[in-house]
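One chain given next:
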Amino acid sequence: MCGHKCFGARVIPRVFLSLLFLVSSINFMMHFADMTKTVSAGLTPVGLSGLAVLATLLAIAFQLIGGLLLISGCKTSLGAWMLVIFLTLATLMYHTKWTGAGGTMQMLAFLENIAVIGGLLHYATCPCKECREHCQGSCQSNCCGKKEETKTA
């Protein structure tokens, strides 16, 4: 049984990770034009700057939906994978230039994002036996997404 023993180990970190992406998605929406310019700059080196609006909309969707799934405990693995995909792409697009002015800050941002990806993978892969069993079903919020069975005496 998962129950209360997972609250501190699984629920609280899940909420903290989710908040990062939920707040970011709101920021993306509030500053859509500026974010689209930033996304365009990241897509320019690969010749895809024309897809900036679509990419910005996808970034918002992945952060918002992934964050909501993760924080709710419903389809936690799917939400975590959405956030891993978003963060991996963002990290590779914006935090790989470690030389010159700001190089150290870019390297630190890269490492911070890698650490967050590591935390998300904990939920994406649902590592413990109890949670694997719980993750097979419905969207009730406990440690990773399945309603616990009630036992009768």
